[in-house]
Amino acid sequence: MDLIKKLQEGFVISDGGFGTMLQAEGLKAGELPETLNITRPELITDIHCRYLEAGAQIITTNTFGANSLKYAAEGEFSLESIVQAALDCAKAARLKAARILQ
């Protein structure tokens, strides 16, 4: 999809608050939501699918607070692994939603 062209033709619909959805699913205060990309990828993928099924044309990854201060290379999860897992979840949701919405 050419985003510039799409915007010139009208508007696009993006997903909503990922953190709010995670809190509704039980994310506790102080938990790092980006870690769920690795520990609960099915949940992250499901949230993406819900937004796509609701009409979102653009989904963002669950990486809002992902940075090298939170995810140092020597920590349990590296920043690279968090971001890669987030991309994998978004791509999986896109494929799953495409099958569902056909």
Please report the total strand number as a whole number.
0
Low-pLDDT parts are: none
What is the average per-residue confidence, as pLDDT, rounded to a whole number? 92
Quaternary structure state of the chains depicted: single chain
Q: What would you call the shape?
A: globular
| Helical amount | 40-55%
Give the C-alpha Rg: 15 Å
Q: Report the biggest beta sheet as strand number plus sense, adding barrel if it closes.
A: none
Task: Tell me the number of helical segments per DSSP (H or I, 4 or more residues long).
Answer: 5
Percentage of residues in DSSP E strands: under 5%
Total separate domains: 1
Instruction: Give the N-to-C terminal Cα separation.
Output: 18 Å
Sheet/helix structural class:
mainly alpha
Order of helices and strands: HHHHH
In short:
This protein is mainly alpha-helical and 102 residues long. The chain is built from five helices and no strands.
Q: How does this structure look, described?
A:
- With 102 residues, the chain is mainly alpha-helical.
- The protein has one domain (13-101).
- Helix content is 53%, strand content 0%.
- It contains five helices and no strands.
- The chain has helices at residues 3-9, 18-24, 36-39, 41-53, 79-101.
- Helix 4 (41-53) packs across helix 5 (79-101).
- The longest helix is centred in the last third of the chain and has 23 residues, at 79-101.
- The two termini are 18 Å apart.
- The model has no long low-confidence stretch (mean pLDDT 92).
